[in-house]
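From the pipeline queue, job 12 of 40. The input is one protein chain; the requested action is below.

Action: predict structure.
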Amino acid sequence: MTDSTQPPLTAIALVCSLKPSPAPSSSELMAEHVCEQLRAAGVKTETLRCVDHSISPGVEADMGDGDEWPQIREKVLNSNILVLATPVWLGNPSSVTQRVLERLDAELSNTDDADRPIMIGKVAVVAVVGNEDGAHKVIADCFQGLNDIGFTIPAQGSTYWNGEAMQSKDYNDLDEVPEAIASATAAAARNAAHLANALRNGQYPPYS
């Protein structure tokens, strides 16, 4: 539960679908389901589909002319919670997800006044959709990168849906979300909001 005497917590959902808007996206739908639960916990949310923006390859905060990552980076810096939503492709996170993580790698060398990585104190959750096995592996890959960058991962901080192997049904084709997935989504959001509030009121100790 968030502290009503403080400004609301904020979350940015980065959707790493390969499909540009306005094409339907299961990853975006899953991200919205996480955001619905975050809003129920008093968190203000915003969703951004990364492929709609020009994110240059590289590992710097700003790669120069035409790079739209700096504006996205500001949204991450101004949020308490990052929701990273990705499809599974060939058993891995999407190439867009990998690019987002590579750009976030720049933050390892950016520190606050206490010499902590600048993303310290922010919470990250991962949402995965796909029509093949591999969700646990994709979540593990994303968690490892996000944690290295400085994000804190809440207990049960992920949710996923995998369709039947060799079939074409997507998450956004479901008539209703299965109870087990809805429960996992709610737990991830609830735990993320709790952890973000705790970190806002008790930051990690200084590094120097």
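Job complete. The radius of gyration is 16 Å.
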